[in-house]
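Action item from last meeting closed. Structure (104 res):
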Protein backbone atom coordinates (compact mmCIF):
# COMPACT_ATOMS: atom_id res chain seq x y z
CA UNK A 1 0.00 0.00 0.00
CA UNK A 2 1.00 3.61 -0.64
CA UNK A 3 -0.58 7.00 0.03
CA UNK A 4 -1.93 9.73 -2.25
CA UNK A 5 -3.82 12.92 -1.46
CA UNK A 6 -7.50 13.40 -2.27
CA UNK A 7 -8.52 17.05 -2.54
CA UNK A 8 -12.26 17.61 -2.29
CA UNK A 9 -13.83 20.90 -3.46
CA UNK A 10 -17.34 22.11 -4.30
CA UNK A 11 -17.94 24.45 -7.22
CA UNK A 12 -20.76 26.80 -8.18
CA UNK A 13 -21.55 24.90 -11.38
CA UNK A 14 -20.38 22.12 -13.68
CA UNK A 15 -18.63 24.51 -16.07
CA UNK A 16 -16.40 25.85 -13.29
CA UNK A 17 -15.61 22.33 -12.05
CA UNK A 18 -14.73 21.24 -15.59
CA UNK A 19 -12.61 24.33 -16.30
CA UNK A 20 -10.61 24.16 -13.07
CA UNK A 21 -10.37 20.36 -13.18
CA UNK A 22 -9.01 20.42 -16.74
CA UNK A 23 -6.53 23.14 -15.83
CA UNK A 24 -5.21 21.19 -12.82
CA UNK A 25 -4.70 18.03 -14.89
CA UNK A 26 -3.12 19.98 -17.77
CA UNK A 27 -0.74 21.71 -15.34
CA UNK A 28 0.11 18.29 -13.82
CA UNK A 29 -1.02 19.37 -10.36
CA UNK A 30 -3.58 16.52 -10.34
CA UNK A 31 -3.50 13.10 -11.97
CA UNK A 32 -7.26 13.23 -12.45
CA UNK A 33 -10.42 14.88 -11.22
CA UNK A 34 -13.73 13.16 -10.64
CA UNK A 35 -16.64 15.57 -11.05
CA UNK A 36 -19.65 14.31 -9.13
CA UNK A 37 -23.37 14.90 -9.72
CA UNK A 38 -24.88 18.07 -8.23
CA UNK A 39 -25.59 18.10 -4.51
CA UNK A 40 -27.63 20.33 -2.21
CA UNK A 41 -25.70 22.30 0.37
CA UNK A 42 -27.08 23.98 3.48
CA UNK A 43 -24.76 26.43 5.21
CA UNK A 44 -24.59 29.59 7.26
CA UNK A 45 -23.13 32.64 5.49
CA UNK A 46 -23.15 36.27 6.62
CA UNK A 47 -25.39 35.34 9.54
CA UNK A 48 -28.08 33.71 7.36
CA UNK A 49 -29.01 30.12 6.58
CA UNK A 50 -28.38 29.49 2.88
CA UNK A 51 -29.24 26.63 0.54
CA UNK A 52 -27.91 25.95 -2.91
CA UNK A 53 -26.84 23.45 -5.50
CA UNK A 54 -23.11 22.78 -5.88
CA UNK A 55 -20.90 20.48 -7.91
CA UNK A 56 -18.45 18.42 -5.82
CA UNK A 57 -15.16 17.29 -7.30
CA UNK A 58 -12.34 15.08 -6.05
CA UNK A 59 -8.77 15.59 -7.28
CA UNK A 60 -6.11 12.88 -6.97
CA UNK A 61 -2.56 14.09 -6.47
CA UNK A 62 0.73 13.15 -4.83
CA UNK A 63 0.92 14.16 -1.19
CA UNK A 64 3.89 16.45 -1.77
CA UNK A 65 1.94 18.34 -4.47
CA UNK A 66 -1.30 18.80 -2.52
CA UNK A 67 -0.32 22.27 -1.25
CA UNK A 68 0.42 23.55 -4.76
CA UNK A 69 -2.85 22.06 -6.04
CA UNK A 70 -4.82 23.70 -3.24
CA UNK A 71 -3.20 27.10 -3.92
CA UNK A 72 -3.95 26.85 -7.66
CA UNK A 73 -7.60 25.91 -7.07
CA UNK A 74 -7.95 28.77 -4.60
CA UNK A 75 -6.64 31.28 -7.19
CA UNK A 76 -9.17 30.15 -9.84
CA UNK A 77 -12.22 29.44 -7.67
CA UNK A 78 -15.22 31.80 -7.87
CA UNK A 79 -16.20 31.54 -4.20
CA UNK A 80 -15.09 34.15 -1.69
CA UNK A 81 -14.24 31.33 0.74
CA UNK A 82 -13.95 27.96 -1.03
CA UNK A 83 -13.62 24.96 1.25
CA UNK A 84 -10.75 22.82 -0.01
CA UNK A 85 -10.34 19.62 2.02
CA UNK A 86 -7.35 17.29 1.74
CA UNK A 87 -7.34 13.69 2.93
CA UNK A 88 -4.67 11.02 2.70
CA UNK A 89 -5.85 7.83 1.00
CA UNK A 90 -4.21 4.42 0.95
CA UNK A 91 -4.01 2.95 -2.54
CA UNK A 92 -2.15 0.17 -4.30
CA UNK A 93 1.46 1.04 -5.05
CA UNK A 94 0.73 0.94 -8.80
CA UNK A 95 -1.94 3.65 -8.38
CA UNK A 96 0.43 5.82 -6.33
CA UNK A 97 3.10 5.38 -9.03
CA UNK A 98 0.60 6.50 -11.71
CA UNK A 99 -0.42 9.56 -9.64
CA UNK A 100 3.24 10.45 -9.05
CA UNK A 101 4.09 10.03 -12.76
CA UNK A 102 1.05 12.05 -13.89
CA UNK A 103 1.90 14.95 -11.56
CA UNK A 104 5.61 15.23 -12.35
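Sequence:
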Amino acid sequence: MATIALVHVTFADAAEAERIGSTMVAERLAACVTIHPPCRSIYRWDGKMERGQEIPATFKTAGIRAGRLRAAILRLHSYELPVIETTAAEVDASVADWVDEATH
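Note appended to the action item: The longest strand covers residues 48-61.
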